User: Which sequence fits this backbone?
């Protein structure tokens, strides 16, 4: 059996500097160690853990996701439409429930039998972690030698009884700036006039954002229209992984001091409401979460999202955002954005917009891997600029 302290120390020694995850009983011992560290974030779902690590990598960190293989279904989306096209590498340490030859609960058997094949189909190199110290060290060394090569992600599969120690976490969670007495400001600045188009609003946001700010646009027409407004290295255009914009932005914001503006949609935000709880808990002062709400899945035919029944600002305030503001015109939205930039966050700005988009809307010509590479260069550079 392996010493969990030594295992985490080995990952640290290989340069892993940001961890995120969802607990697994096979990984209880090492994850109990991680849980009290400021460079670990517990996620509400595996998708968010992967997206946070993607954001942290964009900010210059080397990352690891800890989870159980029962959550591998949730990981397929970011592995295939975020990590792969953008060539963003991460180490995945995965508890292998239902592994061949091991009796387990019925719900783990099918996933256990197919875990290796699924990961390999996602382009992830797979290593089985041995239970003896020397063999485990060699396997970790081999996996880390592959990690990041041409954007390659790797996985360490961990079977039952691998780690010493069964004690549950008994420390104190260490979210940044935690304050149970914090007062959250909620403002409704809607004036009921004609709603702005997304393109005109994005144009105004780009003009109002600080030159050193990073902008992350959710997948679909939001990213495509931002590209039409202006193509800059501080723009990250998502082309998949719907719902992950907030988690990517959180990973960036926790590992970089620049202002981070997440341009989310109502459909994407609803898909991953748990992200808002993690944003409120970790409380990054430099994150501004902007939801452009047209009550529709605009990129796929305009089907309703149901967001008309949802009070996003109230949810953000309940989750611990410093402020949450509702707007429905460009002037008020720009003014709210300026207030958010001037004060520590995280902040939510919810903006009601028209449905529809630019006619004959094109797509970014820059390949996703280059979008990620130049965005990373921007985030890790000492100065801002075009």
Assistant:
């Amino acid at each position: 059996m392996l010493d969990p302290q030594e295992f985490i120390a080995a990952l640290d020694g290989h340069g892993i500097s940001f961890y995120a995850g969802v607990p697994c009983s096979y990984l209880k011992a090492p994850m109990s160690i991680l849980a009290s560290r400021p460079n670990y974030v517990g996620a509400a779902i595996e998708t968010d853990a992967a997206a946070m690590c993607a954001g942290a990598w964009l900010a210059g960190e080397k990352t690891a996701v800890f989870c159980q293989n029962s959550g591998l279904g949730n990981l397929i989306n970011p592995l295939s439409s975020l990590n792969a096209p953008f060539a963003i590498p991460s180490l995945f340490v995965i508890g292998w429930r239902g592994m061949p030859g091991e009796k387990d609960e019925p719900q783990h058997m099918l996933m256990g039998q197919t875990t290796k094949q699924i990961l390999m189909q996602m382009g992830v190199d797979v290593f089985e972690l041995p239970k003896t110290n020397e063999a485990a060290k060699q396997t970790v060394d081999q996996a880390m030698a592959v990690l990041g090569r041409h954007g390659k992600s790797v996985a360490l599969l961990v079977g039952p009884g691998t780690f010493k120690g069964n004690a549950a976490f008994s420390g104190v969670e260490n979210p940044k700036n935690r304050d149970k007495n914090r007062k959250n400001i909620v403002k409704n600045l809607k004036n009921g006039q004609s709603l702005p188009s997304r393109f005109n609003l994005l144009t105004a946001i780009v003009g109002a954002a600080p030159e050193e700010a990073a902008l992350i646009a959710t997948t679909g027409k939001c990213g495509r229209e931002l590209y039409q407004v202006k193509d800059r290295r501080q723009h990250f255009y998502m082309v998949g992984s719907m719902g992950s914009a907030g988690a990517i932005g959180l990973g960036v914001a926790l590992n970089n001091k620049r202002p981070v503006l997440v341009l989310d949609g109502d459909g994407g935000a609803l898909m991953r409401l748990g992200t808002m709880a993690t944003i409120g808990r970790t409380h990054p002062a430099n994150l501004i979460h902007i939801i452009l709400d047209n009550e529709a899945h605009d990129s796929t035919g305009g089907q309703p999202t149901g967001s008309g029944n949802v009070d996003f600002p109230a949810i953000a305030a309940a989750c611990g955002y410093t402020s949450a503001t509702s707007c429905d015109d460009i002037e008020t939205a720009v003014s709210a954005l300026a207030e958010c930039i001037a004060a520590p966050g995280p902040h939510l700005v919810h903006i009601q917009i028209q449905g529809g988009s630019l006619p004959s809307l094109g797509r970014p010509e820059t390949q996703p891997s280059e979008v990620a590479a130049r965005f990373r260069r921007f985030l890790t550079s000492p100065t801002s600029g075009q």
Observations:
- The radius of gyration is 21 Å.
- DSSP finds 14 helices and 15 strands in the chain.
- The longest helix spans residues 106-121.
- Residues 2 and 134 are 10 Å apart (CA to CA).
